[in-house]
Amino acid sequence: MRDPVNLLPRRPRAVEDAPDADAQVQLCAFFVGDDEYVLDIRRVEEVLPVQRVTAIPHSPAFVEGVLHLRGVVLPVVDLRKRLQGVPAAESRKARMLVCKLGPRRVVVRVDRVAEVLRVRRGDIKPAPALMVAGRSPFVVGVCGPPDRLRLLLDLKALLRAELAREGAHQPK
Question: Most CB atoms closer than 10 Å: which of 128, 134, 145, 163?
Fold first, then answer.
């Protein structure tokens, strides 16, 4: 089974894979600042209005804290801080996306949710080589018309160091 976050093929398409390019995928589109991003909708469990978050001392700057949601405590990441280095502005349009990352769940705060869209898998282009040259590339693809390109995020790569740190502190 293909990893839900990796909508792009891992190898060049063979002739027998051609129908795969026509397969539709659903993406959740949202804004962080003026930039539009998308996530595979299978990663998004729910969209919430902004909730009260409890800060955690000594956490990374982009981790707002934790949120108690229906009996489960989840980490909250401010994507504006993570991607742009500045805190999210208070807005009535801001939302929290509860996302699945393998066995874990994380809440990401975004400036606003735009829409859920259907895109042909073949219309998602790999991120340019210069964008992925660094460590842990978190923009894995680009889709949309030229005047409104959307960046496909890999949340696991975006949060890899924090997820590894969290795993190291869990009891075995």
Answer: 163
Asked whether the whole model's pTM tops 0.85, one would answer: no
Burial (Cβ within 10 Å: 0-12, 13-18, ≥19) of residue 155: buried
Write out pLDDT tens, residues 60-74.
888 999 999 999 999
Neighbouring C-beta atoms of residue 97, cutoff 10 Å: 22
Mean pLDDT is lowest, of 5-9, 95-99, 145-149, 157-161, for 5-9
Per the structure block, which two tokens stand in for 171? 């009891």
For residue 4, count other CB atoms closer than 10 A to its CB: 14
Question: Residue 114: how many CB atoms within 10 A of its CB?
Answer: 15
* Torsion 62-47-139-75 (CA) sign: positive
Q: Which helix (H) or strand (E) holds 59?
A: none
Residue with tokens 């891992």: 10
CA end-to-end distance (rounded Å), the chain: 28
